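Backbone shape codes:
===
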Amino acid sequence: KDQLHQSLRLLVRKIRAQVEVLTKKNRLKEEENARLQQDVDATKQELTDLQLIVASKDASESKFNEEIETLNAELETKTQRHSAIESQLLAQLSAIRKEKETATQQYETQLQTERDSHTLALQTERDQFENVRTQKLALDTKLAEVMHQNDELSLQVQRTLQQ
């Protein structure tokens, strides 16, 4: 019986030792699982944060695309307006040139046929020519201003697009 008790005690000690080892291993596994769960939770939070950032970036990109479309529409409108103004100015310039040519031809004809008797008419023609030149200079100045404004607008759009 003593031997049996001793064997049983030894067996109980071994079982207790194994239970203690298994309990320690189990506790370590539980701690590792808890750390892994924390890592998973942190990763989920990072993913959620990244998804919010991506959504924010998408919204910003959409906003910028809308602004670009608006600026492109404005540029198109101003380009059309500039083209219309340029066409008007070119038509006016052409008319002024034709008027100038006509006035010059009339002047030359009158000069050849009535040089002595039309000194006063010659002065009138010179005054008309000066008025036409002044109008042309004014139109050239206006055209230069419009072209300068268009260049500034183009630079502004390019800067906006580069941003």
